[in-house]
What we know:
2 copies of one chain form a homodimer.
Chain A: E1 9-14, H1 21-35, E2 38-43, H2 47-52, H3 59-62, H4 64-81, H5 96-107, H6 114-126, H7 135-144, H8 149-156, H9 159-174, E3 182-185, E4 188-191, H10 196-204
Parallel strand pairs in A: 1-2
Antiparallel strand pairs in A: 1-3, 3-4
Helix pairs in contact in A: 1-6, 1-10, 5-6, 5-8, 5-9, 6-7, 7-8
Amino acid sequence: MNSAQQPPVIRFWFxxxxxxxxxxxxxxxxxxxxxxxxxxxxxxxLGPIFGAQGWSDxxxxxxxxxxxxxxxxxxxxxxxxxLPFRRPSIFAQNGxxxxxxxxxxxxxxxxxxxxxxxxxxxxxxxxxxxxxxxSETIAECLVAVGQPAGEVLERAAQPEIKARLRQATDEAVAxxxxxxxxxxxxxxxxxxxxxxxxxxxxxxxxxxxPVIS
Amino acid sequence: MNSAQQPPVIRFWFxxxxxxxxxxxxxxxxxxxxxxxxxxxxxxxLGPIFGAQGWSDxxxxxxxxxxxxxxxxxxxxxxxxxLPFRRPSIFAQNGxxxxxxxxxxxxxxxxxxxxxxxxxxxxxxxxxxxxxxxSETIAECLVAVGQPAGEVLERAAQPEIKARLRQATDEAVAxxxxxxxxxxxxxxxxxxxxxxxxxxxxxxxxxxxPVIS
Lengths: 213, 213
């Protein structure tokens, strides 16, 4: 289905509260570039999706054995990737403001600051133990990537942006997304940081079953 | 910690009802042999573990979006591995009898028929759509691997075997196991078919953080 001109596209669904989105955010650009696949960044919110399943909190908090394992598994992944990690005192953090700002970023045709901003917020959350629900934290992340913090935060509070983020979350539900990170190619869904390679392979081969290398 | 004489050991925790245990069962022997790691097969039951979390059924049935994704993901894995797959009409099947027979197998010091028997039962479940709770099905799997079906089934019904399987499940809980397949090296837990390589690497390097190859 891919023309010779345009690279295949993968949609990258991430949530700022999500642990496993952190390694995915850190590595997707290099992996996708190596596979010659374009990435569309799609911030969304897991809260409403969990809520619809009857969960008032992260399943990692609701199911302690699963949570204990996740933190250990996550720590091993960070060690392997040389990714700074300090277990945050709050989990899961409220990523609403960050997701709205990232929505501003993907609508900003002039710039490509969504990846850098997103990485800065994930570092604040999972490496620096900072409160990402505070506008001060988000403002510092914006400044760090060369964006006018006040202006962007104002834009992020506009009804248009709020509606756009809700729409992205509805779209995620329609695609069958139930966790983060997720990757989609058309309707084909891959869930989890450890499915990134398979998703990229799927994107490259235009929907044929990928072959594990 | 490993002497020069003895290969490192990985414990392989599987449940006969579990979809993702099927590819793990199919590939663990070759992968472990290539990594020069010995495998201890550990049949156990997820039912009591799910029950303790308040689940009366597989989470793939309780959470439809997760379930829909799992079947698609599972199908992709089977295609990649060339593993025959036909979605069973009953999910999750009752694997109690098969787990008791596998417990007989791992206590049988004379033979090494646990892997072959286990593969036969997983094929019956996920490739042939057969009812693995029936003793006729299990008897055929035993015959297929050259075992005296009547004798083994009689032994599987002994209180000693039932107690041994309960003990394995308790041991799984104590190790923090909450799903299948799981792999342990000492107290280090890895969950999921897609963590097999990492677990083998961990086993080989004696507890040092593994390096992704």
